[in-house]
């Protein structure tokens, strides 16, 4: 019986390690997609000459993130700095795309497209928080895991410093007690 219990405990740590690894891969993919979508948002804003800043929208995103955090078993206020950093990185990417300019074909984004893009961003944010919650069940991110995430999360117009800031704010997210 003692051998069975130790085997079960060792298996549990193997499964936890596999789960953490899957979560890290998912986090990288979700963050990358979230940042890459900013090109489409910038194209829409360029076409309709809209400002990058939309404070009312940002407040809605933060409120939705707090609700999702609660559903995911996270402390709602602990996600705010991460979501704010995510939006800041997104706006910075949009500004860079706007500064580079768009070809006419890039500006074919419609209002309906923007609603679809925003819906996808909301889905990605929800998946991010759910995945972070799942990952935190095995403990905080290690330095090597954070470095791996930084290496694998790649998006045009996202600098290393912005990526570092984004990943640094992730460490403030806490599971609800």
TrEMBL record:
<dbReference type="Pfam" id="PF01817">
    <property type="entry name" value="CM_2"/>
</dbReference>
<dbReference type="InterPro" id="IPR051331">
    <property type="entry name" value="Chorismate_mutase-related"/>
</dbReference>
<protein>
    <recommendedName>
        <fullName>chorismate mutase</fullName>
        <ecNumber>5.4.99.5</ecNumber>
    </recommendedName>
</protein>
<dbReference type="InterPro" id="IPR008240">
    <property type="entry name" value="Chorismate_mutase_periplasmic"/>
</dbReference>
<feature type="domain" description="Chorismate mutase">
    <location>
        <begin position="1"/>
        <end position="98"/>
    </location>
</feature>
<dbReference type="InterPro" id="IPR002701">
    <property type="entry name" value="CM_II_prokaryot"/>
</dbReference>
<dbReference type="GO" id="GO:0004106">
    <property type="term" value="F:chorismate mutase activity"/>
</dbReference>
<feature type="signal peptide">
    <location>
        <begin position="1"/>
        <end position="16"/>
    </location>
</feature>
<dbReference type="GO" id="GO:0046417">
    <property type="term" value="P:chorismate metabolic process"/>
</dbReference>
<keyword id="KW-0413">Isomerase</keyword>
<dbReference type="InterPro" id="IPR036263">
    <property type="entry name" value="Chorismate_II_sf"/>
</dbReference>
<comment type="pathway">
    <text>Metabolic intermediate biosynthesis; prephenate biosynthesis; prephenate from chorismate: step 1/1.</text>
</comment>
<dbReference type="GO" id="GO:0009697">
    <property type="term" value="P:salicylic acid biosynthetic process"/>
</dbReference>
<keyword id="KW-0732">Signal</keyword>
<dbReference type="InterPro" id="IPR036979">
    <property type="entry name" value="CM_dom_sf"/>
</dbReference>
